[in-house]
């Protein structure tokens, strides 16, 4: 496969997202710019300008009409994907570290950072999917995370039932998305190793978390039980689950950005790692970045994935047939057993 | 698929056409005939840029490629670009989009992550070093050491080619004196077989036959399509040629671009050298000089 390099950003990428049909890629970086790309050929569709600080996060609603971004200028902004028009700006006391639309696109979650005396807050807004309509100023739910350590990542589960958060100390918490009550906390990652990413499976019934403790873990959404553990040899920044029919997870990471210049690209381990989702076994790596991978995202179609690196590049990879044909022996045996 | 376009020579310029240009503008309609093999032959008549009537015959095979696309994706593809990309033509632009080098990604069972990572740096370094250390012969640019070059007896390293003729004029001593001087005058060590090279210089070549390099010409800039026989014919004009050697690539069989021509007599060789240097052969200009004795 020949990766397509997207060079729209001048600084490190922080998040990349696919639209639901996998045809558009949205990338945000620390250079205040949001870019939209066609995944098929890497053509840049446009850019959304307006943020005054480093962008931390981006998400697009399931109909690909609205785009939400969160930045270090302490705002969350809502854009119309097609025209690039700024529809709404929400202001906060601290930076927005994570935004996420719910499955149906009717709710939008925003996570603000704990800093300078302000606590982490999770806001949930009811969103009107019509780009012409005015959006609400007031959140329908606000959770102030007081007792728990700093929240690093957050997401809304299937059916908008739970809110799941990952914390600085490696724990995962589950909240009721209606009342905002803390239901359960699981200490799944090593202590004091922050959870760097949380990505859902296609149906949001389970999710994967990556951590600086060099592992990624698959969790059940309702019980927070650790289903699978993928062990890597480098601190992880991101983890993604490939959609059916392939059963893989992709992990991205690498040495911390501050140590990068002291080592060679190979030792930095700036590779996307592929693991079998069920057998937890590593099956391959894809090289290319010359900085740590800050985010990996898989197209919901499963045909391609892209990674955003500290080096300022987004690399889009369209998978070759061997990727789809690969099966473990047991899988093959099972298939044959079913046939006869 | 296969669209062969045959353009007939312009219709004859007879008086009728010259005087009545209106007639030429009345063109017969294009004819479309279906062939047995599923192709179509389209014959069209048109006026070419010289103002003459021309006939074009095209054979076309139509294949229908069906592709399913999500209507929403198709709609988004048609969106006009916005922001900094507004108004730019469709298709990826080279300033924002480039293709990386091909990556072979083949999932394998039991991918050795940990071990490979620990071992890999050293191993890879070695392999890389080997790969990088491209052995290149200084004489014939082949992938062997210069000392192992089959032409080392007859040819100087390429870089020294320019001085070869001068050396020859000054006698064999030119190159040898330097080496010899090292052995005698300077304090640095010179291996025995290089000392006093003027005389033998053949210490390492045991039993190797000494070719008469005095009458051997080195011909460079030879067309890669040249044959030994061509060279022989060209060079035989100046005297009896005892040997023609044209270096050929082992894989492709094409000439490498240089050859050796040995004469029975040195005066013939000198004459040939003079005449043939700068001679146009094929699409290239030959360069002919005396073969210099190998210094290695």
TrEMBL record, chain A:
Pfam families named in the record: EIF3I
Q: Where is the signal peptide?
A: none
Chain positions of WD repeats: 6-37, 48-89, 160-185
**Sorted alphabetically, which SMART domains does this protein's record hold?**
WD40
What the entry lists under InterPro entries is as follows: eIF3i, WD40/YVTN_repeat-like_dom_sf, WD40_repeat_CS, WD40_repeat_dom_sf, WD40_rpt
For the biological process aspect of GO, one term held by this record is: formation of cytoplasmic translation initiation complex
Q: Write out the function statement from the record.
A: Component of the eukaryotic translation initiation factor 3 (eIF-3) complex, which is involved in protein synthesis of a specialized repertoire of mRNAs and, together with other initiation factors, stimulates binding of mRNA and methionyl-tRNAi to the 40S ribosome. The eIF-3 complex specifically targets and initiates translation of a subset of mRNAs involved in cell proliferation.
Indicate what this protein is called per its UniProt record: Eukaryotic translation initiation factor 3 subunit I
Instruction: Tell me what organism the protein belongs to.
Output: Neohortaea acidophila
Automatic annotation (TrEMBL), chain B:
User: HAMAP family of this UniProt entry?
Assistant: eIF3g
Record field: compositional bias (Polar residues): 1-10
Q: Which Pfam families match?
A: eIF3g, RRM_1
A biological process (GO) of this protein is: formation of cytoplasmic translation initiation complex
**Family in the record:** Belongs to the eIF-3 subunit G family.
Name of the molecule in the record = Eukaryotic translation initiation factor 3 subunit G
UniProt GO molecular function: RNA binding; translation initiation factor activity
What is this organism's lineage?
Answer: Eukaryota, Fungi, Dikarya, Ascomycota, Pezizomycotina
Q: Where is the RRM domain?
A: 215-293
Q: What does this protein do?
A: RNA-binding component of the eukaryotic translation initiation factor 3 (eIF-3) complex, which is involved in protein synthesis of a specialized repertoire of mRNAs and, together with other initiation factors, stimulates binding of mRNA and methionyl-tRNAi to the 40S ribosome. The eIF-3 complex specifically targets and initiates translation of a subset of mRNAs involved in cell proliferation. This subunit can bind 18S rRNA.
Q: Where is this region: Disordered?
A: 1-36, 188-208
Q: Which domain of life is it from?
A: Eukaryota
Question: Where does it primarily localize?
Answer: cytoplasm
